[in-house]
Write a structure and sequence with these properties.
mainly alpha, single chain, Arc Repressor Mutant, subunit A, 2 strands
């Protein structure tokens, strides 16, 4: 079992204990926006994450309740990873990070269609994505 050591009771410190590295948010991004659910999909996602780091981050995210894992009913040797309700609650934060990056990174890969939609109907897109993720969680 993974034991997270807390520096303090500060809410920012608490979040950084979970998300204080680049890999964790990229895994959440892949689950949230890219429909990835399998170890191999994260590994081959283009970010070049090492296998040991990926395994550690998935275990930490599961231990902290951000993701849940289950056995794939179609392939007993495969594990499916999904965002938990706690993980889905990160959606507004992830959208804000995307919007901030789209505004300040001239080389952003953020889809213009997504950016325009968030600007026009932030609540609608949050509701849509959240609903999709909650439905996946029930599967």
């Amino acid at each position: 079992m993974i034991k997270l050591k807390r520096r303090s009771d500060c809410p920012v410190s608490f979040a950084l204990d979970i998300f204080g590295d680049k890999w964790t948010f990229l895994i959440v991004r892949d689950l949230m926006f890219k429909g990835k659910h399998y170890y191999g999909e994260f590994l081959n996602g283009g970010e070049k994450i090492a296998t040991n780091i990926l395994a550690d981050k998935l275990a930490m995210l599961e231990h902290s309740g951000v993701i849940v894992k289950s056995v794939d009913p179609n392939h007993a040797s495969k594990i499916i990873y999904k965002l938990s309700k706690k993980g889905i609650d990160l959606l507004p934060l992830m959208v804000e990070i995307i919007m901030w990056s789209a505004k300040h990174d001239i080389h952003t890969a953020a889809e213009i269609k997504f950016i325009k939609r968030v600007k026009k109907d932030r609540e609608g897109i949050l509701k849509e994505i959240s609903g999709k993720l909650k439905a996946e969680l029930k599967e």
